[in-house]
Amino acid sequence: MGYFYKHNIHPYMECVRRQKTLQTYAEMIKLQVIYQPDYDLQGFLQNVVFRESERCLYCYHDRLRSTALIAKRGKFDYFTTTLLYSKFQKHNIIKQMGESIGKSIGVSFYYRDFREGWKIGIKESKRLGLYRQQYCGCIYSEKERYFTF
């Protein structure tokens, strides 16, 4: 079972593109996915404004908590995150945060370092013709990725 969290993805058309890619892939592998129904970009920005250097911590927490709540509601044994696939994310923080959130909500966090499959994943996504994002999702990471002086 998958869960698509989207409050942090900017601009909106990038969010749509990522969701459509997941829908295509989910159909290919017969994966059921729960899609977050709303798009609270304003809420995300309000929670990180003036704390931009700490935005990842807020994003990790919000995504993990949202996923844990879905897992609790669905009576799943575990929850995890695709953040653990990225070599650009802070694994130690994600692991600690996931375990803490899991304890407080009552669903165990599954940690595994999925980065070992990073290159294979790139190759496979290209073979399947799937869109690959070029930044984590938020407006700040988009700027960091593309803005040059």
Description of the molecule:
The protein is mainly α. The chain has one domain. The protein is 53% helix and 7% strand. The chain has 6 helices and 4 strands. It has helices at 12-29, 41-48, 55-73, 91-105, 118-128, 139-146; strands spanning 2-4, 33-35, 78-79, 108-109. Strands 1-2 form a two-stranded parallel ribbon. Helix 4 (91-105) links the parallel strand 3 (78-79) and strand 4. Helix 3 packs parallel to helix 4 (91-105). It is globular, with a radius of gyration of 15 Å. The chain starts with a strand and ends with a helix. The model has no long low-confidence stretch (mean pLDDT 96).
Descriptive key words:
149 residues; mainly alpha; two-stranded parallel ribbon
Task: Reconstruct the topology from this structure.
Layout: E1 2-4, H1 12-29, E2 33-35, H2 41-48, H3 55-73, E3 78-79, H4 91-105, E4 108-109, H5 118-128, H6 139-146
Residue runs with pLDDT of under 50 for 5 or more positions: none
Q: Strands of the largest sheet, in order across it?
A: 1-2
Q: What fraction, in percent, of the residue positions are helical? A: 40-55%
Assess the beta-strand content as a share of residues: 5-15%
Using the alpha-carbon principal axes, give the shape.
globular
Order of helices and strands: EHEHHEHEHH
Please compute the radius of gyration using only Cα atoms.
15 Å
Q: Averaged pLDDT, please?
A: 96
Task: Tell me the structural class.
Answer: mainly alpha
Write down the domain tally.
1
Straight-line N-to-C gap: 43 Å
Q: What is the count of helical runs?
A: 6
What's the count of strands? 4
For the report, how would you describe the main beta sheet?
Answer: 2 strands, parallel
